[in-house]
Structures are given as structure tokens and as C-alpha cells.
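Example 4.3 (complexes with small molecules)
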Amino acid sequence: MKKGFVYIVGAGCAEADLITVRGLHCLQKCDSVVYDDLIDKALLEEVPTKAEKLYVGKRSGQHSCSQEKINQLLIQKASEGQIVVRLKGGDPFVFGRGGEEMLALQKAGIPFEEVPGISSAIAVPAFAGIPVTHRGVSQSVHIITGHSALSCDGLAAGMEPLASLPGTLVFLMGLENAKFIAEKLIQEGKPEETPVAVISARASHHPVTLRTTLNHLGSRLEEGKFPGPALIVVGEVAKMKLLD
Ligand code: SAH
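Answer. The structure with S-adenosyl-L-homocysteine bound is encoded below.
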């Protein structure tokens, strides 16, 4: 019997041609692709015509699939002898739960490999002309979850060390909590004039960008509905605009 295999592939950010060549080759030889939101659907046209396309995301009015169910699906398909591609937005290990899926596959004795992808944490600021590090301006970049699940204690408690970091802070999944994040950072000592950029990039050109400072972030976002998905860049690089 043909032995199954799972490739956990980073789809890259926003546009199909930002996947790696290796990731594309995996798609072109797979028997099934298990995908979620935040991938360019044009990538699904790359799989062989007979390949199964299995959506396990949270949007499009469908019920979200639990992580446990996704793990089981990967194990089941690979056990049937399939070459499975688990396609994830950005990079599988940047808030992508790729590690959890790999642990489940390891436990089930299914062979697997990870193919890195270009994370939104770096690509989306770049689309807006913001380098996440820049000589003489920012010597480090920190990628942080701004998710509400952590807002009660985890995120708030974790803000103190974050506020004192001199480098760039990139918050993913933080749009809903933007005001809270800004207030906490100021409270913990981050200067209120620190530049901030909120960016949403459905495509690499002309991302929707809001540039402001920490103390005005909450009120600026209240002016209108900012589109998602979005990330928040905090630090001196956020006022840069390296675009033609
Ligand atoms: N693994 C992904 C991140 C998953 S978490 C990666 O490496 O990119 C999802 C978060 O990523 C979103 O809430 C948002 O903060 C960010 N994100 C993903 N795609 C984005 C896009 N096109 N524009 C802005 N932010 C994006």
C-alpha cells in the first residue's frame, strides 16, 4: 500500500505567487489539500484535477472545524495513503498551530515535513513601505498575539516587558484589541508619541494603512470600520514609507 505523507505548507501572504517554489511543488503533486482562511484561493488551482480540496477555515458562513478534527482529518487522509498538503496562511509556525498538527502526526506515526512561508508579520509591513528592522532605527522585531483570549490576564500581564523593548512590535490578531493594547503599552511606559501603523493587505499593492501614534490609535480606529485581516506595527519604523 502507498504510504501517506503530510506537508505542512506556508502559503505566504496575500497573493498566490508569494508561496515558495517548494510549497508550490507540494501542491502540484498532492492527493488532497486541507486549507483554511487567509490563503489566496488561486493556489487551489495548482493541485491536480482529481485532488480533494477540503476547507477547514472559520469564515464563509461555515462552522469552524476544531483543531482536534483537523488533526484527525490529516491523519485519516494520510492513513489512506494520500499525499496531503496542509495549506496555511503565511508561515505555519507563526500563530498557525503548525506545531500542534505536527505533534499529532508524530504521535500517530505519520511522516510529515514543514515548508516555511512568508509571514504576514514581515510581508504586510513591507507592502506598506515599512521595514520591520532598519539600521539605526530598530534593531529587533517582536511578533506578538493581540488576540482577545489573552486580554484578561495574559496579554495585559505580558505588556510590561513589551513596553520596554526598544525594537519593533508587530501584533497579529490584534485589531479588536487595538485600543486596549495601546493603552496598556502607554501605561507600562511606552512613550505615547510612538508611531503606529495598522495595515490590512488583501493584495500586496495599495494596502489599507492607518498611520498614527499610540495615544491616538483607539480614537482613529473608532472613526470608521477598519478592514480585516489587519496587523499593528508599533515603533519608529511605523512612520517610514519606502514606496515609490
Ligand atoms: N500564520 C500567519 C498568521 C496567522 S494569525 C502568518 O504567518 O502570517 C492571523 C493574523 O495574521 C491576522 O489576524 C492578521 O493580524 C495577520 N494577517 C494575515 N494576513 C494578513 C493580511 N493579508 N493583511 C494584514 N494582516 C494579516
